[in-house]
Amino acid sequence: MPRSEYALTEADRAVIHALQIAPRADWSRLAPVLRSRPDTLARRWARITAAGTAWCGTLGLHTGETPPCLAWIEVLCTGGRSQVRSALLTEDPHVLSVFETTGDRAMLLFVAFPDLSMLDEHLSTRLSRLPGVTGTRTHLVTAVHRSGPRWRLDRLTPAQTHRLIDLPGRPREPGAGAVPSLRPEDRRLVLALAEDSRLSVAELARRQGGSESATRRRLIRLESSGTLTHHCRPAPLYSGWPVSVVMWADSPTADLTAVPPIVHLRETVEFMSITGPHNLAIALTLRSLEDLPACASTLMRRMPGLRIADSFVVLRCHKFAAQVLGPDGRRTRTVPPDIWSRPVPLPTGL
User: Fold this and answer.
1) Of the ranges 116-120, 237-241, 322-326, which one carries the lowest mean pLDDT score?
2) Any bridge partners for residue 273, and if so which?
3) Are 266 and 299 in contact (CB under 8 A)?
4) Tens of pLDDT along 83-109?
């Protein structure tokens, strides 16, 4: 079908915004806020997800009392066998996002592992053996100041947004206490929700072969601790914000405990402290490439001393937060983010 047939309407965007705030809320609770009927909203969402223009998913990356090991990895490559390379990276459960970019790197990855040793194992037994890879640069994430699930379409009024804040199903911020260790049954729950965070408790229990009451208790425990991150995301090419840019930047202030104001910019999707020659990674979404200079100026004006060292435009996103995207940017399927499994070595000379 022509791409125009998959365009999101204003009503579609309102549903997506509501689910970004309360991704597991029942349609019956969302209906009064969106001034619609529950069955109408359910049909609309079914059409949106069938087209792949938006989705709800879940990430649960914590492995116990310590946070996961997250990193941005620049992959330096020759030009040959790029399709094989991108396919292998897309199927990797540890590689959450795969971007082809401008600049002197061929690909940019966002990855997650339980610990540094498993990241090192992955670099030596998988990434270094990919066809055409000549080197990698790894930037460990030391703090996440803003993550992708907090980005909003902003289609609802402030009054509508306020009515959604306390609805059941709204993701909670991580608490100050220790995050509970993920048991094997917890991991199965996380992987089931990765494809569709709106799965009912009954369906989750059926898939795992457990009782609804036990599944509900497990889900509440993981949500209340902040272990689970539910998110709703429109496909960028259909969201009205089709251009993605990643920047390496330097801040003279190493301690960013006080969240800088640029975190709340409309264009900011992710803002992280990283290791390496630059101490910040900033991911942006823009309405057009022409907006990039003005956005960069705004970043530097709102955060005195900020220096943008490098910026690169995403030419194609193969995978985003475990969701596989087709050439036209629509979601086609999910690769379960089983970050706890050991990396499977690739054969040499692939």
Assistant:
1) 237-241
2) 143, 280
3) no
4) 888 999 999 999 999 999 987 778 999
Report the C-alpha gap between 98 and 314 in whole angstroms: 10
What count of residues does the chain have?
A: 350
**Residue 285: CB atoms within 10 Å:** 21
- Dig out the tokens for 149 from the structure: 């699930």
Location of structure tokens 């499994």: 341
Q: At what angle do helices 212-224 and 201-208 cross, to 10 degrees?
A: 110
Report the distance separating Cα 164 and Cα 158, nearest Å. Answer: 10
DSSP per-residue codes, 227-272: --EEEEEE-HHHHT--EEEEEEEE-S-S---S--GGGGSTTEEEEE
Q: What three-state secondary structure class fits 120?
A: helix
Structure tokens belonging to residue 266 = 């409309």
Instruction: State if pTM tops 0.90.
Output: yes
Rg of the chain's alpha carbons, rounded to an integer?
20
- For residues 73 and 75, what is the distance between their CA atoms, to the nearest angstrom? 6
Closest CA to 25 of 166, 224, 146, 159: 166
Residue whose entry in the numeric block shows the structure tokens 């609770």: 29
Phi/psi at 108 (5° precision): -125, 130
Closest CA to 132 of 102, 106, 165: 106
State the average pLDDT for the chain: 88
243-289 tens-digit pLDDT: 999 999 998 876 666 666 777 788 999 999 999 999 999 999 999 99
DSSP 18-58: HHHHSTT--HHHHHHHHTS-HHHHHHHHHHHHHHTSEEEEE
230/336 Cα distance (integer angstroms): 14
